[in-house]
């Protein structure tokens, strides 16, 4: 039996549950292949990744060691593997998003597809931007404050597992928080919120973003203010996008449904 070619299904296609499950399995396998290739490359270049993550420690001077310490027999391997996995997720993210988009896109109308594709393209760009902002702008002052706080009263020993978890968790969290324009624009296009509503409730949104930023591992007040600046700017940018591209839910109504409903007073 010839093997079926994997392709996005049309909106008008109707497939049984078994075919949908087969499509889902194929998309998952392809995603795992992309991730596996990225994982091999990242583990092969693990020394480069370790150097990049350790670089913020070099700027702190002699107050803390320039390399974190390990306290277990296998900790060097497990920490290196963890970093390679996170880097592989970041590299393979566009391919993973495409596979997810190709699976769910048959359920979208043509109008919804025109909305989904730009949002899909914005997700990896904003995530990488958030991670880069965290690495270059947030981490240096955060590490300087936290590691030098009452440094004369402590013998600071930086454990590799804790340090790398701190760095990775902070970068991923900011990458996700940078998705604010995507979420706002999606809600606006679906008619859930309006630009006027977003502008009117700006203070509550800023308060909510401050609460989310306070939950990040970088708990010092200086870093919190640094994190809030791009989040507020992204929210304002989201309002601009909502005014420019946001449209009510009526636009997504299927015209065939309207044609099927007879006017009031007419009966078949």
Strand content of the residues, in percent? under 5%
The assembly state of the depicted protein chains is single chain
Query: What form results from the Cα inertia axes?
Result: flat
Extract low-pLDDT stretches: none
Rg measurement, Å: 24 Å
- The count of domains is 1
SSE-based structural type? mainly alpha
Biggest sheet architecture? none
SSE ordering: HHHHHHHHHH
- Counting DSSP E segments of at least 2 residues, the number of strands comes to 0
Count of helical segments? 10
Mean pLDDT, to the nearest integer, reads 78
Distance N terminus to C terminus?
Answer: 49 Å
Helix content class: over 70%
Structure description:
With 268 residues, this protein is mainly alpha-helical. The protein has helices at residues 17-44, 46-58, 75-104, 110-148, 160-177, 180-189, 195-200, 202-214, 221-245, 255-260. The longest helix has 39 residues, at 110-148. The model has no long low-confidence stretch (mean pLDDT 78). It is flat, with a radius of gyration of 24 Å. Helix 3 (75-104) runs antiparallel to helix 4 and helix 4 (110-148) runs antiparallel to helix 9. The protein has one domain. The chain contains ten helices and no strands.
């Amino acid at each position: 039996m010839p093997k079926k070619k994997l392709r996005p299904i049309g909106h008008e296609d109707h497939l049984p549950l078994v075919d949908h499950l087969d499509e889902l399995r194929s998309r998952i396998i392809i995603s795992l292949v992309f991730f596996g290739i990225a994982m091999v490359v990242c583990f092969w270049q693990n020394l480069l990744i370790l150097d990049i993550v350790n670089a913020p420690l070099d700027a702190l001077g002699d107050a803390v060691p320039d390399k974190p310490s390990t306290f277990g027999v296998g900790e060097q391997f497990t920490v290196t593997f963890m970093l390679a996995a996170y880097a592989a997720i970041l590299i393979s993210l566009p391919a993973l998003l495409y596979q997810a988009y190709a699976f769910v896109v048959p359920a979208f109308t043509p109008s919804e597809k025109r909305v989904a594709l730009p949002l899909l393209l914005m997700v990896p760009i904003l995530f990488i931007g958030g991670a880069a902002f965290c690495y270059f702008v947030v981490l240096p002052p955060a590490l300087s404050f936290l590691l030098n706080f009452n440094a004369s009263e402590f013998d600071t020993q930086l454990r590799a597992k804790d340090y790398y978890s701190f760095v990775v968790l902070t970068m991923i969290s900011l990458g996700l928080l940078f998705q604010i324009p995507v979420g706002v624009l999606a809600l606006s296009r679906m008619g859930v919120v309006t630009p006027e509503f977003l502008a009117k409730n700006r203070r509550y949104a800023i308060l909510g973003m401050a609460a989310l930023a306070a939950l990040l591992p970088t708990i010092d007040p200086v870093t919190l203010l640094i994190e809030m600046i791009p989040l507020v700017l992204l929210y304002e940018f989201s309002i601009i996008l909502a005014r420019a591209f946001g449209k009510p839910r009526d636009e997504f109504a299927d015209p065939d449904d309207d044609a099927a409903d007879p006017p009031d007073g007419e009966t078949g």
